[in-house]
């Protein structure tokens, strides 16, 4: 992008307006930073909770834990909230914290390039260009739907859509529906649409472990108590958090301890599914927890209904309106619904980030995603991600991890202010590699690596670049402060090194 005095410039550009992006915006304002924008490709806020509006969409983390600690919500209607309530909460956060003036909606980021001469990011969006000293990428891993490349799919005469792009104008009543996938979305969709469709065929490549969903209405008395005595909301949140912290060791160090949970899941299935043949199809052959444990009271009963067929095989070919599974099973369908997840380990945004050496983030991550403390990547100065590599969780609330990364973001900006002048921080390759090596070493013992499954946590080479192999407390401690020894200080050409820095061209290394 050529230098142009009419191109707006901001201190910070935040990309995305889901939990990560809105959380970053709130934290920036609390830190006294008001010169920022939130770039959002859609016409409203909410991220994945805006995009996923399929029938039955709800969260599998308790409501009081799946919300910001700085914005408790005493009005949650249920212990596990639905999509509409979570999206309303995010709209409420946007209004209460005065974020709307910072929003730039319908502004998809097309490309962002680091300008080493001017020490800023040049950003091209669908609504025009801008530049920013710092970029905070909060696009999230569950933002770009993945539809498998199935031979013949283009020739399917019916309707096709992904669960995250639900076609609400299409009436499913009486239709022959093929549901592809058995993940978190599918187990919510199936019970909702089963009563109205003519025929429902579930293509199951791998059966999930499903536990009961202990969901109930939060009574008016409870809500009044939380409004009158806010500390009761904090206590409730703290209890939910503590239980999950105690569970972590079973996932990360002692997967064999999950055998009891496995037996509970088998009993849950046996209560609903009496047919031995169907039960055999639905029984996983891997350790529980290797894939995300799903919660539902209605999924198994729906699969026993006369208008439902479970094909224990993945979809491999489409011949007109005939769907062919890997085991040869053929099914006629009027509509195909893909519940096949997202581009998690190959996020499309990485193709749109061009770093200091003219290399894209996708190319830098060609051997697998990795980032220092889940936030910064070598060769990409003043760029950081929220929900970056190895920050995901298998049993608790991602909001806890987001808030930890917001602590890191805030200290990052403070360090830039302390260094003074036109300056940037670039993660040292050695620091990134050291951090990634430690994470991957810890990962070797976890159920996600040893449980005998292939999950979306793993990249194309089988490395787990998604999950954090520890407690949320450990992650918060690791991201409380920025260690300048892990960064190179980048100054404008010709600038003088500051105190405590040794100069190498325009790059300096901060002395610990």
Automatic annotation (TrEMBL):
Polar residues bias located where? Answer: 501-512
Record EC number: 1.14.13.-
Q: Which organism is this entry from?
A: Streptomyces gibsoniae
Q: Name one GO molecular function term.
A: oxidoreductase activity
Keywords on record:
FAD, Flavoprotein, Oxidoreductase
Q: Does the keyword Flavoprotein apply?
A: yes
Q: Which domain of life is it from?
A: Bacteria
Q: Region annotation Disordered: residue ranges?
A: 492-512
InterPro entries, sorted:
FAD-bind_Monooxygenase_sf, FAD/NAD-bd_sf, Flavin_mOase-like
Gene3D superfamilies xrefs: FAD/NAD(P)-binding domain (3.50.50.60)
Which family is this protein grouped under? Belongs to the FAD-binding monooxygenase family.
Matching entries from Pfam families are given as: FMO-like
Residues spanning the membrane: none
Q: What class of enzyme is it?
A: oxidoreductase
Protein name, per record: NAD(P)/FAD-dependent oxidoreductase
């Amino acid at each position: 992008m050529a230098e142009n005095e009419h191109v707006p410039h901001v201190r910070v550009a935040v990309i995305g307006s889901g939990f990560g992006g809105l959380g970053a915006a709130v934290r920036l304002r609390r830190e006294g930073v008001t010169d920022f924008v939130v770039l959002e490709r859609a016409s409203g806020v909410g991220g994945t909770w805006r995009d996923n509006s399929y029938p039955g969409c709800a969260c599998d983390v308790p409501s009081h834990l799946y919300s910001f600690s700085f914005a408790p919500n005493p009005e949650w209607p249920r212990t596990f909230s639905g999509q509409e309530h979570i999206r309303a909460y995010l709209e409420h956060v946007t209004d209460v914290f005065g974020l709307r003036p910072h929003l730039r909606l319908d502004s998809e980021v097309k490309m962002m390039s680091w300008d080493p001469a001017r020490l800023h990011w040049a950003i091209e969006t669908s609504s025009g260009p801008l530049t920013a000293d710092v970029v905070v990428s909060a696009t999230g891993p569950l933002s770009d739907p993945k539809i498998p490349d199935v031979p013949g799919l283009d020739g399917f005469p019916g309707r096709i859509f992904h669960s995250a792009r639900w076609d609400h104008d299409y009436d499913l009543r009486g239709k022959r529906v093929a549901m592809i996938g058995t993940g978190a979305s599918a187990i919510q969709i199936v019970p909702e649409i089963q009563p109205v469709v003519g025929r429902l065929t579930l293509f199951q490549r791998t059966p999930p472990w499903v536990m009961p969903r202990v969901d109930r209405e939060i009574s008016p008395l409870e809500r009044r108590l939380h409004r009158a005595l806010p500390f009761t909301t904090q206590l409730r949140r703290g209890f939910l958090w503590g239980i999950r912290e105690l569970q972590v060791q079973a996932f990360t160090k002692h997967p064999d301890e999950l055998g009891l949970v496995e037996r509970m899941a088998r009993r849950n299935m046996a209560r609903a599914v009496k047919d031995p043949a169907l039960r055999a199809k639905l029984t996983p052959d891997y350790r529980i927890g290797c894939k995300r444990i799903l919660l539902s009271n209605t999924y198994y009963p729906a699969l026993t209904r006369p208008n439902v067929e479970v094909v224990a095989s993945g979809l491999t070919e489409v011949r007109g309106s005939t769907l062919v599974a890997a085991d040869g099973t053929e099914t006629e369908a009027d509509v195909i619904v893909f519940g096949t997840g997202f581009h998690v380990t190959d996020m499309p945004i990485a193709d749109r980030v061009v770093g200091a050496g003219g290399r894209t983030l996708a190319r830098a991550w060609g051997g697998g995603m990795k980032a220092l403390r889940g936030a910064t990547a070598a060769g990409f100065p003043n760029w950081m991600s929220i929900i970056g590599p190895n920050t995901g969780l298998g049993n608790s609330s991602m909001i806890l991890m987001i808030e930890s990364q917001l602590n890191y973001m805030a200290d990052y900006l403070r360090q830039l202010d302390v260094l003074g002048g036109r300056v940037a921080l670039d993660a040292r390759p050695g620091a990134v590699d050291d951090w990634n090596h430690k994470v991957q070493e810890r990962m070797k013992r976890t159920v996600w690596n040893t449980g005998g499954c292939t999950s979306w946590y793993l990249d194309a080479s089988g490395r787990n670049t998604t999950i954090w192999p520890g407690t949320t407390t450990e992650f918060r401690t690791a991201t409380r402060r920025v260690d300048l020894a892990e960064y190179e200080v980048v100054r404008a050409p010709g600038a003088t090194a500051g105190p405590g820095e040794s100069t190498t061209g325009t790059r300096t290394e901060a002395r610990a």
